[in-house]
Amino acid sequence: MFDQAANVLQTPRDLLRFAISRFQEAALFYGHGTDNAWDEAAYLIAHTLHLPLAQFDSLLDARLLNSEVADVLDVLERRVQQRVPAAYLTHEAWLGQFDFYVDERVIVPRSFIAELLANDALAPWIEFPELVHSAADLCTGSGCLAILLANYYPDAEIDAVDLSSDALEVAEINRSRYGLEEQVQLWQGDLFAPLAGRRYDLIVSNPPYVDAESVAALPPEYLHEPELALGSGDDGLDLTRQLLAQAADYLNPLGILVVEIGHNRAALEEAFPTLPFMWLETSAGDGFVFLLTKEDLEQGLAA
């Protein structure tokens, strides 16, 4: 069908209709930046043709070169036949106003922590940005949260840690794109392992948190992402347990830990009944990101 399309389709409008039909027919899964066939098709077509997405509608009837049609059809075919997420096809992912390079060495960035930083939602625990002199991003992946930390806390020295050397190669690309080589340091290792002796005013983490049952049921699109970045034991909390056990030793007095855990709130509260989790309000509700102070961790884990 894609071969036949090359001889018929002539405009972005033609390609958009064709893409939506193929996406619907293939029952693609969305969740890496868009949530429906129309938006995903428009994004992929506009990006491939180097057209501004905001003005895409005004260019729908422009005639295209045969080579341009072929380029778009190649991208659409990979999306349908191989179920490659759009972000890997374009090597681009957005968190708010920030865009990041991504490929299959890292999970596609998607974190509620990004919106919390943008909305100053860590107040009153962090009263003024200039009070943050040191921060860490554990399981940094593409480096996206570390880069956001550097933006929102410009006086802070940032450490970004990941177990995967491949992921850190991508983080280095993004660090360089934003010119943050001096402010953001990249470390390879397991959580706090490379950070011995360091202390932080703020530690954030969006660790792997998918439970084993959910990993087994993931749509094909997610299987393109690194397995290391998705699952975390039977209940999805293995990495979170390690974070909770060690974080207090790496926080300054009044320092805070902010962790995203997906849909695991009930399981986490059951596992740690003595910890006074503060659940932060996000666009999806208040069950996805928790905050604990150094003092909360010390007292709660000692109880």
Overview of this protein structure:
By secondary structure, the protein is an alpha/beta fold. The protein folds into 2 domains: about 1-90, Orthogonal Bundle (Helicase, Ruva Protein, domain 3), CATH 1.10.8; about 100-300, Rossmann fold, CATH 3.40.50.150. The protein has 12 helices and 9 strands. It has helices spanning about 1-5, 10-25, 35-50, 65-80, 85-90, 110-120, 145-150, 165-175, 210-215, 240-245, 265-270, 295-300; strands at about 95, 100, 135-140, 155-160, 185-190, 200-205, 250-260, 280, 290-295. A 7-stranded mixed sheet has the order 5-4-3-6-7-9-8. Strands 1-2 form a two-stranded antiparallel ribbon. Helix 2 (about 10-25) runs parallel beside helix 4 and helix 6 packs parallel to helix 7 (about 145-150).
Category by helix and strand content: alpha/beta
**Shape assignment:** elongated
Number of helices: 12
According to DSSP, the number of beta strands is: 9
Count of domain modules: 2
The CATH architecture of the largest domain can be named as 3-Layer(aba) Sandwich
Please name the fourth-level CATH homologous superfamily of the largest domain: Vaccinia Virus protein VP39
Give, in spatial order, the strands making up the sheet with the most strands. Answer: 5-4-3-6-7-9-8
The third-level CATH topology of the largest domain is Rossmann fold
Q: What amount of the residues lies in strands?
A: 5-15%
The oligomeric status of these chains comes to single chain
- Unreliable stretches (pLDDT < 50, length at least 5) are none
Largest sheet: 7 strands, mixed
CATH class of the largest domain reads Alpha Beta
- Helical coverage, percent range: 25-40%
